[in-house]
Amino acid sequence: MAIDHPLTLEKLPPGESASIMAINVDSELKKRFFALGLKEGVHVRVLRRGQFGGPLHLRVGTSELILRVQEASCICLATPFVATHPTSPSL
Amino acid sequence: MKRVALLGMPNTGKSTLFNRLTGAHAKVGNWPGLTVELLNARLIVGDQVVRMVDLPGIYDLNGYSDDERVVTTFLNTQAPDLIVFVLNTSQYERQMHLLSQVMAKGIPMMLVLNMVDEASAMGIDVDVQALSQQLKLPVHFVSAKYGQGIERLQPAMREVFHGPVACPASLSPSEVEAAFHAAINVPAQASHALTERLDQVLLHPVFGLPIFFGVMLLLFQGVFAIGKPLQDAATWVLAAFRTEALEPLLAHTPLLLQGLLLDGVYNGLSTVASFVPLIVLFFLFMGIVEDTGYLSRAAFLMDALMAKFGLDGRSFVMLLMGFGCNVPALMGTRVIRSKGLRYLTMLIIPFSLCSARMQVFVFLIAALFTPEEAPWVLFSLYVMSIAMSIVTSLIFKRQYVNQDAFVLEMPPYRFPTVRQMVLTGWQEIRHFLNRATRFIVLGVVAIWVLTNLPLGVQPGSAASWAGHLGDWLQPVFAPLGINPELTIALLFGFIAKEIVIGSLAVIYGQEGAALVHTITQHITWVQAYSFMLFVLIYTPCVSTIATIRKETKSLAFTALSVVWPLGVAWVVTWVFYQVATWAVA
């Protein structure tokens, strides 16, 4: 369900952007992410995905970076477009 | 002497600025984490000489990676008198937190906003005065690459040294952030338009990889198309120098000394030297690829494939860099934080067909194969080089497990300036002269002694010391088709691969066209290919071993990195030689 399976970065299709809600990685990696611009509250855009399960090519602010799918799955996004209304038929 | 340290995140242009200011030749490229050693050079600031240190780029002052530890240890043990903090202007948002960390160190500071050329192309507007007032730091706006604003830095440093010692104000990260936001104006849609367009083609889901391999192939083709005539010209000039100048000059010296100087030192050295144009060209082309930022794209394109071998995109880039020289590639693995992945990458880098081995192959291929066959033979050796890396990583990936996250900056495409290209070329010539004086002369002299003593023997014959040594090792090398003369070349090639061709010149007592002719008389193409396979796979050189030892501080791993390639070299060469002789017969 929407609440049990929050939208994570690796599910964001190329060309889409969303804001980062939470980053669930160890503190050391979190520091590295932070230094590359990946932090809670910022907008991240998926520019493209590598072939054969390759990494994501992202833009955060004016920087671009590449990130493997595995790490991207630790980044939760705010989901403004997903229906979370209680009367939604999907719930 | 006062000390100034350059500090900042990776790929912000610290080394470019360092070279600009000091006239030094630090290696630069568009790849995060290229500076791995603490380079330092003297710089005149007003009336005094100061020492400037180029620190490796770091992301966080409290990080635990090797390069971050190098920087923190440096700051804690030998605090500089001034830190010049270099920041990529268009990426200030993610770089200012490091600035506030460094400001808290309480060391006098100066802020350099670099890459003004890129920032203004993106429409980014900076109020330097306001920023300087808010941060209470001297702030300068420069382009280290194009030299813009550089002339203001030395006077500014002088002011810092002559004024009262002023430690930076202790501002909180949010105060630093506020200062930047107030002074810098970024348009809503700031991006590198050219980079975006290029990436659409170069990172294309279908054509991206074929384009990458096409570019690499073109690079090699270009090197040989331009380099081969230059090499031939160099060979001719060096041979003419011997007959026209050296031989008359040494005509009256004792025969033995004449032999040592002409057939030993000069033949050996000149054979190696004739390859300098080819090598310089090779590094120049590789340097252009590196400067443009295409390597990060290669990492993106290859990551999924490399993951199957327990490696990642960065390992692939290090393998590519290894095609130039294995030593900087080994040091470049410092950006990898997982010990497993770093060791695995270091284990496979020595299989990268470096430029020194390329010389041996170009030389032997030209001697024993037709011009039509030559490119394919060389290509097959590159394929073998990559195959050995893959096989090794598949075997060892369970011992050296990759636990590192793969996250990498993708810098915008940048175009190298003529100045940078000239610097790269000059660096390679210096690098060669350095190796020539340290290893190559020693190596060829030792070989001359071995092949010409005891006194009175036919040089290089079975009666010479070299002959005895080669014969003694024949049980090991005969099954590979490697004769006693080639065995001697292999033994000394352990020191540096350039010695291999130098030593062939000494062993056969000839240079240039005559040497090529003699070699074709002595060995078959199967033997030559066997020899090349062995040279490709076995231990590259003592510098590589020393670097592995220094980087890992592990004797066991260093031993593995020597023994494993030796074993693989013997087995692969044996299989090739046995099959090929059976097939040819």
Question: Would you write up a description of this structure?
Answer:
The complex is a heterodimer of chains A (91) and B (585). Chain A has 2 helices and 5 strands; from the N terminus they run βαβββαβ. Chain A is α+β, with helices and mostly antiparallel strands. Chain A has a 5-stranded antiparallel β-sheet. The C terminus of chain A is likely disordered. Chain B is α/β, with parallel strands linked by helices and 585 residues long. Chain B contains 26 helices and 9 strands. Chains A and B meet through helix 1, strand 3 and strand 4 of A and helix 3, helix 12 and strand 9 of B. Strand 4 of chain A pairs antiparallel with strand 9 of chain B.
Q: Which helices and strands appear, and what pairs or packs with what?
A:
The complex is a heterodimer of chains A (91) and B (585).
Chain A: E1 17-23, H1 27-35, E2 43-49, E3 56-60, E4 63-67, H2 69-72, E5 75-77
Chain B: E1 3-8, H1 14-22, E2 39-45, E3 48-54, H2 66-77, E4 82-88, H3 92-103, E5 109-114, H4 116-121, E6 125-126, H5 128-135, E7 139-141, H6 153-162, H7 173-183, E8 184-185, H8 193-202, H9 208-249, H10 255-273, H11 276-292, H12 294-308, H13 313-322, H14 326-332, H15 339-348, H16 355-368, H17 374-396, E9 407-409, H18 418-452, H19 465-472, H20 474-477, H21 484-493, H22 498-507, H23 512-522, H24 525-537, H25 542-552, H26 555-584
Parallel strand pairs in B: 1-3, 1-4, 4-5, 5-7
Antiparallel strand pairs in B: 2-3, 6-8
Query: What does the average pLDDT of chain A come to?
Result: 82
Major sheet of chain B: size, sense and barrel closure? 6 strands, mixed
Q: Beta-strand percentage of chain A?
A: 25-35%
Task: Give me the number of helical elements of chain A.
Answer: 2
The geometry of chain B reads as: elongated
Largest sheet, spatial ordering of strands of chain B = 2-3-1-4-5-7
Enumerate the strands of the largest sheet of chain A in spatial order, edge to edge or round the barrel: 4-3-2-1-5
**β-sheet strand percentage of chain B:** 5-15%
The chain-level mean pLDDT of chain B equals 86
